[in-house]
Amino acid sequence: MFLRVADGTRPARSEFDMFKYRKVAIAAASDLLVLTLPDAICFIIAIALRVEMPIECLRTLRRDCLKNPARGYVSIEYTKGRGGPRAKIKRERVRDGGINTPGGLVRLALELSRPAAERMADRGDPNADYLWVGFVAAGLPSWRRFSLSTHNFYAAIRSLGLVDEAGKPITKIVPARLRKTVKRDNYLRHTGHLRRFASDHSKPVAARHYAAVDGLREEHARSVAVAEGQLFDMAMMPLVLPPKEEVSALASGLSIGNQKLDAGAVASLVSGDADTFLGMCSGFWSSPLGRNDNGSCATAFTGCLHCSNAVFTARKLPALLTYLTWLAERRAVMTEAEWHERYSADHNRIMVQILPVFDAGDIEQARSTAENAAVAPALPPHLQRG
């Protein structure tokens, strides 16, 4: 009945009484047939989270906004009022298909709003070519363009009864922040490369508006920490000699940091005269990581993993594998945070930078040695005590 009233048709008395005494709710009848204001707001939110279009441009989409569909993509044409004295017609290429795609959502909104657009066009309404039109039951029922104000956004969200992770009601969604959410995700997906991220802005504007925000501070801090770790690892990359390179060093010598070892010094080094628990030391009395009172290395057991004086060959693989087993045992009895703080650097050094240099056959042979109690390298006393 209210749909006919909106068309200018006078209702029968029986029809009017049916709605007057609430035997049938107005919303229950109209919502089944046409696009309503809450529907339009939900559509806009869903589209806004899938495109990079400003929210004010989504509010003013026209019914002919879909252009050049091809191969699962379509362009959405919109008018951008900011960025200059005159409005600019712009397009964004988006996926097109089901209702989980921007193109599919716009097509569904076009279908649901078609009855309103046809009736508005028949009466010469200048707003008939806008996308967000439908039936409004409040006041005098009519077909008209929706008022997509922030207040109406808040009311539509409250009507959904949404709750957050803590179970508290979500009473509003700020429309202007929807684009920032999309930009943040794109910034992370492009790993901070502004040239790829700044699709519709200059790089300084994109960095200022969407990268230098509170929500990304933690991610930036984490990225800086990772970069510092990578730089440190590059600077402290261990000297690992697989069998072929060990033979070459025995013949022609070896450079370790700032010192050059001749063939004789290399032979002495790899013979076992300068062994520590995990590696071989080319400078036991000149440790860069700390020294005892008598000048000897203060970190000779596991500190070799992070020392520029250390050299690792296949002969030390059984000790490295034994230490990895001990690290796994400690991980089982410690909290993950505590283990990570104390031992993850050692674990990563062995797993990422030392073992991959050797062939699988070398590692398998070393594992057999480590599992043989008669010849397996013994853990240092302080590690045996835990």
Can I get a quick summary?
The chain is mainly alpha-helical.
What does this molecule look like?
This protein has 17 helices and ten strands. It has helices at 2-6, 13-20, 26-30, 37-48, 55-59, 102-122, 150-160, 178-189, 194-197, 203-211, 217-235, 243-252, 263-273, 317-333, 336-354, 360-371, 381-384, and strands at residues 66-70, 73-80, 88-95, 133-136, 142-145, 239-241, 254-256, 259-261, 280-281, 310-313. A three-stranded antiparallel β-sheet has the order 1-2-3. It has a three-stranded mixed β-sheet with strand order 6-10-9. The protein is elongated.
Short descriptors:
3-stranded mixed sheet, mainly alpha, 17 helices, 10 strands
Question: What's the SSE blueprint?
Answer:
Elements: H1 2-6, H2 13-20, H3 26-30, H4 37-48, H5 55-59, E1 66-70, E2 73-80, E3 88-95, H6 102-122, E4 133-136, E5 142-145, H7 150-160, H8 178-189, H9 194-197, H10 203-211, H11 217-235, E6 239-241, H12 243-252, E7 254-256, E8 259-261, H13 263-273, E9 280-281, E10 310-313, H14 317-333, H15 336-354, H16 360-371, H17 381-384
Parallel strand pairs: 6-10
Antiparallel strand pairs: 1-2, 2-3, 4-5, 7-8, 9-10
Helix pairs in contact: 4-6, 4-7, 12-13, 14-15, 14-16
